[in-house]
Amino acid sequence: MASESVKVVVRCRPMNQRERELNCQAVVTVDCARGQCFIQNPGAADEPPKQFTFDGAYYMDHVTEQIYNEIAYPLVEGVTEGYNGTIFAYGQTGSGKSFTMQGLPDPPSQRGIIPRAFEHVFESVQCAENTKFLVRASYLEIYNEDVRDLLGPDTKQKLELKEHPEKGVYVKGLSLHTVHSVAQCERIMETGWKNRSVGYTLMNKDSSRSHSIFTISIEIYTVDERGKDHLRAGKLNLVDLAGSERQSKTGATGERLKEATKINLSLSALGNVISALVDGRCKHIPYRDSKLTRLLQDSLGGNTKTLMVACLSPADNNYDETLSTLRYANRAKNIKNKPRINEDPKDALLREYQEEIKRLKAILAQHMSHGSLAAMLSSQAPPKPVQVEEKPLPTPVIQQDTEAEKQLIREEYEERLARLKADYEAEQESRARLEEDITAMRNSYDMKLSTLEENLRKETGGHTALHTAGPTLFNPHTGPQVGPQLPSFCR
Ligand SMILES: Nc1ncnc2c1ncn2[C@@H]1O[C@H](COP(=O)(O)OP(=O)(O)OP(=O)(O)O)[C@@H](O)[C@H]1O
Ligand SMILES: [Mg+2]
After folding, report:
1. What is the model's pLDDT at position 306?
2. Would you tell me the crossing angle of helices 319-332 and 254-278 to the nearest 10 degrees?
3. Pocket of ligand 1 contains residue 242 by CB under 6 Å
4. Does the N-terminal or the C-terminal CB of the chain have fewer CB atoms within 10 Å?
5. Ligand 1: which of 12, 13, 20, 238 to mutate, most ligand atoms within 8 Å of CB?
């Protein structure tokens, strides 16, 4: 299996108001064409700047749209083909991680990677032919080392991490939301965003106090020319980390300080995982040291396509933090992953749905062919078409989906049944009319016959020569009977 490196780009934001007021100088420069980033030590102006090369380097005037199109697009495209993908923003507090991931609605060019990704996913879904998709979203945060569901009924409830031999690490009880449109996805993102822990610090008035992971899961069901079906599943993790911070700069005390300590701890666990992965001699990768590294296990050294956006402040008073971010990012680009398409995952819901539909169809076909049509038609109560053995499904949302599918099939069945009933009744009516016609005709025939016999008897002096035997006439109600030969249209 081919391996590929974690992709890393850097993004340097413009100087903020505080930095301008402090008369800060820019120490970061970028050569966008070469993907290079330079940082000048403000305390050693005569030294040449330190130089780093990445898969992309973006400066103050670059917009998220460009970053997405150049570097995030192929990764998200891969997810729609069945790869797992992770995009995460890393950097010190106030460096632009949430700005990059979440972004602003206006100007549109600065919309974040998260809303762009689901727009992209739905475009792919709508363009694909002969393909069925199931798209689901979840949104969690890791706050003070507790995992919380940002879309759950209780956003403060702590959730447990579990490990599954095939699924890997997952969050037990995390709500999954089936989404059918960009608008639905946006609503989910906004709900989760509002529930996220944010607090004021001196470095960022809307500082993220938690790491967040927005996940889009896609199941892709196709049928090839030979009628064979294929199922693939891709998962896209969009991670907005909390920023590393120094108490002296953020002025954090009390709750803010406690949060900062946990944030720094999990970020250093992430740093240790990255170092261990790129150090060829290291056998043990300390994924278990934090919830963040456990959840990102597949994205770092696993089967995922991963992109890291390292966010930087240009200001000289952040030199140490910026240099540390650049070194961190530089190490990350040496991580090797082995991305592979997830074919036929065992827990795929679309497979479960397909099988459920096949089962229901088979039961329906059985009902239809068993000759019990008349019995079924005579029952006035709405038929209970299928006795489906209900299987417990993973989450309430998922159950709703299966219920919806069953409801659809039930409706389709009832409609078909009503049509058959109407046809049957129409046929019964026309048979009744036919019988009336036959009776009337027989009466008139009998009458004519007896008149003829009477006349004959008169003419021959009491002897008749006519017989009343004819071919067998089938009466749908009374069965076969013997009667006179009828005109051909009545047979
Ligand atoms: N490229 C950019 N262009 C314009 N403004 C930006 C840019 N990047 C960040 N900002 C602004 O800088 C401020 C801090 O950004 P943001 O909240 O994204 O930082 P952060 O890295 O998420 O910080 P924290 O770790 O504290 O959550 C915000 O007001 C944001 O609008
Ligand atoms: Mg943030």
Report:
1. 94
2. 40
3. yes
4. N
5. 13
